[in-house]
Design brief:
It catalyses: ATP + protein L-histidine = ADP + protein N-phospho-L-histidine. GO terms for molecular function: ATP binding. It is an enzyme of class 2 (transferase). This protein is of the alpha/beta class. It is built from 26 helices and 24 strands. α12 packs across α13 and α23 packs antiparallel against α24. The chain is elongated, with a radius of gyration of 40 Å. The two termini are about 75 Å apart.
């Protein structure tokens, strides 16, 4: 019995039609005679989805009791006993009720597949485990129910069920996804166009990557070597020279011209591990290609053109970008060069671009790797063995005569030993001295520097030649071994450095300390100056050595550009160490730039914060002080008028108006003083735990009675705000909404809670704001449309947003379904909100998704969530109807 096949219908968001597509596929299979049953499918009271369930056999669900509630789940044992060909299992990421055999539904699916049963399932992109952080940053809510990526990757088929954000929002507005009372909150929160567009992009990119994997696997399984131009892949051949940056930028421009273009930069090192490339230059080119969205690859190969073409064909590349040769004209006698060879052998399916640059025909200019030194003591031992060894051996052999052949082998062994210890020169000296001793002591005539037998002459010549050849081979092997060990150490250092660079973990001081420890120096410092004649200053320093005033005072200095240098004290480094030191120097400059950019960003953020608060201050003075002052002045003028005989009731009413205006001024001036101290950094907003139902009603004093409908449940958690700032922000929002609402249509002020946030929505049915004006309405002195001059100077929403952000909240806007504008003010819940949310979630754990959402709407406000039902799970938290992540809304309108 083979393993079953898994087909997943993947969507970007709830409501795109995943379950509908799965049921349609099931109906088609039933028509073809396939034994297909429904293991678990949620129709969520959608008529079209419910209609597709008709005619399909449904396995009765298993009911489990949890915390006093009876919850339905898929009966896995019943499905296994029924053994259909295909089973439908909705909501792959669902958490099973405690007491089920498996904690997750995808684990139930794994059992079904292992039993040889094919499975059709559904999944939203936000439930992929690897995308949890990304989805949270987009929607503001962390998904509690996830599926391991490997489970989805193993699916035999992944079908993308796609729908544009506009079409999905129309479906919701028509009531095809949620009940009408939930549509408003859903469209204003999770189902905003920005959220849906970002989630759709995630789904499309994820499926595109899977398609690419399928294509690569197919090409590998069928040994397809021809290039299929399904997407533009551009390979950039790098030599480590300065022209690499030009080639990378040119390749990036080529990739931008084609949809889905990809840049792959490749550096090919020779198989002996000895490279003439500059590590610092390669590090900069790696950073550049990754900053442009490409990838960097390091390949080993002795035949560079063949290795480059093999890499390009393996990557299914369509183009290769190479630089014009840096070789001089006379060097072409050794061959046509890499560019010409690649162009000749590329074939018709691979385009080769030869890009000009400034270093053409100027020579390679790259440092040549030289042999490593063997050490003075080792060379001394080599000379001792090579010179003294033959003399000692001659004395030992004088006692007995083993024969000329054996004598020569013994002397040859000393030559090999000298080569192993001291290298080539001691070995050659040993071969020459040994040949003289053989001639004098062991070849007739003895004890004379002549040879009578020509055969012995040939033997001595062969001895010298073999000795020299063996010595050169042994010396080369010893040097290569030493060089390989050194290069391995260098690669480990550079790998450590590159890892820290990519992760951004290395600060300047930590990097300098790493340099000092790596090279055994006393101190390391990064020096810089503003110009050629300016004095040097120390940007960073570590170690115990003396402070350096200029690079010339250091034992080792490595320039970084024209006005920066890495200086070390302690000892003089060999030339081969400067290659790795150059990479450290380049990274030190990057670390310094990163630190300064971070400081500049902090300063810019501080200035922006100051400007924002200053703008809010001035706006509040202009917008909010005038009204009570005008009222007070009018009342005082009326009282002082001698033309009118005011009755006691009229005088009391005018005095009451003066007192109310003065109280309002006193309250506002106190808030403005706090804001001014906040701007100077001497005070922060007075954040405390507040009930919304205590603050929001106070903000309605400036609007006509009956113009606002208030829906702020008492069960909401407390919020962490400054009550005065919140009151002013809400007053501006409500006054703005009432001003634009049609006569007789009250403005709705509703509040609801989600996770650790509380949202207050001010909903009007006015003319709304077009998309092209939504980015400007929160700017000061902006008035929308043809508002009359008396309607205000366009500061109301700027003041509201400034006060809200000062409290750590956010204020955004979105369209009201059916026309109008919805302002969403998001605030942080107080510490007790977490306990309130837990209690409320447990209270709704026994309900299906529809019932749970309705219960939440009844106690708080209509906050819609994705379509999966609420399921309690242990040890994981109870699933809150796959919480419809209510993310921040987009910006909208700015009247007065």
């Amino acid at each position: 019995m083979g393993r079953g096949r898994l087909r997943i219908h993947l969507g970007a968001a709830p409501g795109v039609g995943k379950t509908y597509a799965m049921l349609s596929e099931a109906q088609r299979r039933v028509e073809r005679g396939t034994d297909c049953v429904v293991g678990f499918v949620e129709h969520h009271d959608r008529p079209r989805t419910r209609a597709l369930l008709e005619g399909l056999e449904q396995i009765p669900r298993r009911e489990l009791e949890h915390r006093g509630a009876v919850l339905p789940e898929m009966d896995l044992d019943a499905v296994l006993a029924r053994r259909p060909q295909v089973v439908l299992v909705d909501e792959l990421a669902h958490t099973n009720v405690p007491g089920s055999r498996n904690a997750k539904r995808w684990q139930d699916v794994e059992e079904l597949l292992a039993a040889g049963i094919d499975v059709l399932s559904t999944l939203n992109i936000q439930h992929l485990e690897s995308l949890g952080d990304v989805v949270e940053s987009i929607t503001g809510v962390r998904q509690q129910e996830t599926v391991p990526d490997e489970v989805v990757r193993r699916a035999d088929q992944t079908e993308l069920v796609d729908m544009t954000p506009e079409a999905l929002r129309r479906r919701m507005a028509h009531g095809n996804v949620y009940q009408p009372d939930k549509v408003d909150a859903a469209l204003s929160n999770y189902f905003r166009p920005g959220n849906l567009t970002a989630l759709r992009e995630l789904a499309l990119l994820w499926v595109a990557d899977r398609v690419d994997e399928y294509l690569q696997r197919y090409r590998s399984e069928h040994d397809v070597s021809a290039i299929w131009g399904s997407r533009e892949r551009i390979v950039v051949g790098l030599t480590g020279g300065p022209e690499g940056r030009t080639l990378i930028r040119r390749a990036a421009r080529l990739a931008e011209k084609g949809a889905g273009g990809e840049v792959l930069a490749v550096y090919i090192a020779r198989g002996d591990g000895l490279t003439a490339a500059s590590p610092g230059e390669l590090a900069e080119q790696r950073t550049l290609v990754e900053s442009l969205g490409g990838t960097f690859h390091h390949v080993v190969g002795d035949d560079i053109p063949a290795a480059l073409l093999a890499f390009a064909r393996a990557a299914n590349a369509t183009q290769i970008v190479l630089g014009s040769s840096r070789r001089k004209a006379w060097q072409y006698v050794f061959g046509p060069g890499v560019g010409a060879t690649v162009a000749r052998d590329s074939g018709p399916d691979l385009d080769v671009h030869i890009v000009t640059h400034e270093a053409i025909a100027k020579g390679r200019g790259l440092p040549v790797a030289r042999g490593a030194r063997l050490g003075r003591s080792r060379v001394a031992w080599g000379w001792a063995v090579g010179v003294a060894g033959p003399a000692v051996l001659a004395l030992l052999l004088s006692a007995f005569d083993p024969g000329l052949a054996n004598d020569m082998l013994l002397f040859l062994s000393l030559t090999v030993a000298a080569a192993l210890l001291g290298g080539l020169r001691p070995a050659l000296a040993s071969a020459a001295f040994g040949s003289l001793l053989l001639n004098y002591f062991y070849t007739p005539p003895l004890h004379r520097w002549s040879v009578s037998d020509p055969k012995n002459i040939i033997a001595i010549v062969i001895f010298v030649a073999v000795g020299a050849a063996v010595a050169s081979v042994v010396d080369l092997a010893a040097r290569r071994t030493h060089q390989a060990a050194r290069l391995r150490a260098e690669s480990e250092i550079l790998s450590f450095l590159a890892g820290n660079v990519l992760r951004g973990e290395t600060g300047l001081e930590e990097l300098l300390e790493r340099v000092r420890q790596t090279f055994g120096m006393e101190s390391a410092a990064l020096l810089e100056r503003a110009g050629d004649v300016e004095p040097w200053t120390c940007a960073g320093r570590t170690g115990t050595g003396p402070a350096l005033e200029r690079p010339d005072d250091a034992d080792v200095d490595v320039p970084v550009g024209d006005h920066m240098a890495l200086a070390l004290t302690g000892r003089v480094l060999p030339a081969e160490d400067r290659r790795v030191l150059g990479a450290f120097a380049a990274q030190a400059a990057v670390a310094l730039d990163r630190r300064r950019l971070r400081a500049e960003a902090d300063r810019a953020r501080t200035l922006a914060e100051g400007n924002r608060i200053r703008t809010a201050l001035l706006a509040a003075v202009s917008h909010d002080l005038r009204t009570p002052l005008a009222g007070i002045k009018a009342a005082v003028s009326s009282l002082r008028s001698e033309d009118v005989d005011w009755s006691p009731e009229d005088r009391a009413e005018l005095l009451e108006g003066i007192e109310g205006g003065a109280d309002r001024l006193d309250h506002l001036v106190g808030n403005l003083l706090d804001m001014s101290r906040l701007h100077t950094g001497t005070v922060t907003p007075l954040i405390r735990e507040v009930d919304l139902d205590e603050v929001v009603p106070m903000a309605l004093g400036g609007v006509p009675e009956g113009s606002v409908t208030l829906d702020v449940p008492e069960t909401l958690p407390m919020v962490a705000v400054d009550p005065g700032l919140l009151e002013r922000a809400m007053a501006n929002l409500v006054e703005n909404a009432v001003k634009y609402a049609p006569a007789g249509t009250p403005v709705l002020v509703a509040a609801s809670a989600l996770a650790d946030r509380v949202e207050v929505r001010v909903v009007d049915r006015g003319p709304g704001v077009p998309d092209d004006a939504k980015d400007r309405i929160f700017e000061p002195f902006q008035r929308y449309g043809d508002a009359p001059r008396g309607a205000g100077v366009g500061l109301g929403l700027a003041v509201a947003r400034g006060f809200t952000e000062a409290m750590g909240g956010s204020l955004n806007a979105d369209d009201t379904p059916g026309g109008g504008l919805t302002m969403t003010l998001t605030l942080r819940a107080a510490a007790t909100a977490a306990m309130s949310e837990t209690a409320a979630t447990e209270a709704t754990a026994a309900m299906s998704e529809t019932a749970a959402t309705e219960a939440t709407a009844a106690t708080r406000a209509p906050v819609a969530g994705p379509t999966e039902p609420v399921r309690p799970a242990e040890p994981e938290p109870v699933r809150p109807a796959e919480p419809e992540p209510v993310g921040p809304a987009g910006p909208e309108r700015q009247p007065s």
